[in-house]
Amino acid sequence: MLKQRGQREVFCGLTGIIWLHRKIQDAFFLVVGSRTCAHLLQSAAGVMIFAEPRFGTAILEEADLAGLKDAQAELDRTVEELLARRPDIRQLFLVGSCPSEVIKLDLNRAAERLTQTYAPRVRVLEYSGSGIETTFTQGEDACLAAMVPVLPSTDARELIVVGALPDVVEDQMVALLTDLGIGPLRILPARTIEDEIAVGPNTVFALTQPFLGDTHAALIRRGARHIAAPFPFGEEGTTAWLSAIAEEFNIPRALFDRVTEAPRRRARQAISQAAVPLNDKSVFFFPDSQLEIPLARFLTRECGMTALEVGSPYIHDALHGPDLDLLPTGPQISEGQDVDLQLDRCRAAHPDLTVCGLGLANPLEADGFATKWAIELVFTPVHFYEQAGDLAALFARPLRRKSILKVAAE
């Protein structure tokens, strides 16, 4: 494995608020940051001027940064005004940013103080969305990890499925697990605070996202046990993920085959149709979202592609190990990034498709490379059987576009 510790090209963890504020329906995400943080969120979310989203920014002005004002008192005042105007808020997340961390603003102390003031009506938690030494999907990881210590304890044997999924995908997953007779089933993050989750020594959990290392560690500290499995991308990954949970709960193989037979067949058919442009093509992954290893497994084993390099910001054996075990021998596996060196390797390899961040896509397109934005794979429903064909189509689209442009140019 190649380990790199140079210059990187990533978004910051504040980006995770864009999907988390839709998922946790009674929460508000208050970013303690600069106007740049506010502009990033507004631009990324595409919020219209008359909308009232469930996130905002407490702007750190020059006086705050210079220490001329008591930032804790200013934050208390902002929270008081927010909760008075929005009585529907049941969970308030104070989200740290690069500016708040640079001035050493203690949001943990603020969250404890505000919890005492507003409990039990509002639960106040804090986490860091800073882009310092992190990648953008770690915003969700930090958020979920912050929720784990305050979950109540239980001795019941329950399954927690961890990771924010679009509601339609989550509903499909719950239906599959319910048909298999697996339960009680809890989802982290829950849609509201009323859907309370408890954790204890008899809790087992499965991850749906490969970037939840801190949440994994927090649950282990609470005594829960991880069900290791490939991530549910494509037919193979979804079947392996469900099978690992079914084995944990002693589900008969005949029942498993009966429940999964039809969706597996639909997934294989959808992939075979969508993946035609991908067959015998090569792919190069820049480290960006931490989805790279399971996606490389999907593309190489189910779509007929050849992986040249698979880069990931961080590689966690307990999380990525099952997918790494299935990845065919051949590609360079790299952890971390030295963007200039990796650009050199990419240009030398000349892959048919390059998966990278937004900051690298335009320069690579100008060099004649077909690119896929890594962030699109986080925002788009891609998990489980019914989305398997759509996942393959996302990768096929840049190759089709390049082919059409080539014909038009001729």
Notes on the protein architecture:
- The protein has 410 residues and is of the alpha/beta class.
- It has three domains: 2-134, Nitrogenase molybdenum iron protein domain (Rossmann fold); 158-266, Nitrogenase molybdenum iron protein domain (Rossmann fold, 3-Layer(aba) Sandwich), CATH 3.40.50; 267-409, 3-Layer(aba) Sandwich (Rossmann fold).
- It has helices at 17-23, 35-45, 62-65, 71-85, 98-102, 107-118, 138-147, 167-179, 213-221, 234-248, 253-274, 292-302, 317-326, 339-349, 358-366, 376-379, 388-409; strands spanning 2-5, 27-33, 55-59, 91-96, 123-128, 158-162, 185-188, 203-207, 225-226, 282-285, 306-312, 332-337, 353-356, 371-373.
- A six-stranded parallel beta sheet has the order 1-12-11-10-13-14, sandwiched between helices. It has a four-stranded parallel beta sheet with strand order 3-2-4-5, sandwiched between helices.
- Helix 7 packs parallel to helix 9, helix 10 runs antiparallel to helix 11 and helix 10 (234-248) packs across helix 12 (292-302).
- It is globular.
- It starts with a strand and ends with a helix.
